[in-house]
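2024-03-11 09:14:02 INFO receiving multi-entity request
2024-03-11 09:14:02 INFO entity count = two
2024-03-11 09:14:03 INFO echoing inputs for audit
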Amino acid sequence: MGDNTITLAALTKNMAIYDSMPSVIQKGMRNSIVLTLITNVACIPLLCFVPRLVISISPVPPGGFFIWFTADILNLLLPLAHELSGYLLVLNVLSLTLIVLVMLISWGMTRPVREPVHWLAWVAAFPSGASAVSVAIIVGLITAIIVVALVIWILIVLAVLACIVLIGSST
Amino acid sequence: MSGKSNEIKKIGFEGLNRSSVVGAHTQSPIARVFGGGWSDVLNTLQIAPSIPLMPQRVSNSLVRRHKETSLITTMNRLPVRFVGYAFPFSGARVFKGPNSDWAMMYLGEDPVYCFHGNKLYAPHHVTTDVKRMAAAGLKFDAIFVAHEIPTGAVKRSQKISLELIVPPPPPKIMKRLRFLERTSGSWWHIIGNVIKGALVAPVVAGVAAGTVATLPAVGLVALAAADPILFGVQLDNACKLYGQPVGMWYYLTHWYWPAEDDQNGR
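2024-03-11 09:21:47 INFO inference complete, emitting structure
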């Protein structure tokens, strides 16, 4: 049995009440932790990069690629993205800190942890998810404007080509 | 929980009260274990009430310790009972029983004890009993723990997996953990749908969903509700049978992990 014999006296020191027993992180919560981590890792560099991009391209001059109303919308959207990215970055860093803390305490989700740690992991999911949605909406809107501008240009090119063809055929 | 466990619960240790009977030939104490669930459990765990084949009687020192233990137990009204003789062993052993199997091991090698960082979590009344035993001056050379496991869940040569014997979280905590699981799942589901809608590209949500689906299922979701019994063993290395020291085994305590609607644990 080796030298590490547990005596009754030693056992009394190593006993704890069942109600305070730490629990393993359940599968659903593990998934949430992984998603939070992925979201934070993806969003933080993006949100660090956004202000530089906004400063370098704004204000978008009308008449370039972004013609007609697209430049105006973009000039409204970019400062908003710039402003929002600061707050979202703070939320993401906070969420990442909580998740890293949970990962450290639970030794990479391999050890049982007390209930407050489960709650920390749960809380961390909310700013991270909100940030992911905000980033997705901004990226979605900017992409939509780029697509709209591109469609307008394609229509212009097609119209010009059609005119050239029409003029050519009439002569 | 098996039928046998329920039987044990009903019978309690009424039958084990008179344990100081001495064998006529061996001068060794004989455990009086009456029928019912406990008899089956002790038979399964190969703890014999006497050692009639022993060529010599149990050493005086062990008999003296037994008398001391019996005296302390009676004086302090402790649940400790002498249950018989068996050879102590290292590592975990699986014992095949008529209704369920049992995994028994030295407490220091119990996967649950090690998993919780060398801590034994037990209901309040159990910790109180163990503290009373230690305070009364009971001394054992080793402490063993026996976990009830489903029949055939582990073969004799196999390792006892943690999932088989780890207790479920306390019901109140389990309820809250389920709430956390459910709400976080719903939250990420909503986030996934919003992102899908915002980007009009299901790829992102697909990747996220794919990540969730491929996570290793190492979680201890299907938690067993094993019924542990603690045994204290008194040894005398001078008293050997077939080259092994014989241990005098004492029942210390046992408990049941509570189901969601039962908070008592016994």
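2024-03-11 09:21:48 INFO post-check: The longest helix of chain A spans residues 115-170.
2024-03-11 09:21:48 INFO post-check: The helical segments of chain A are 8-13, 27-57, 69-105, 115-170.
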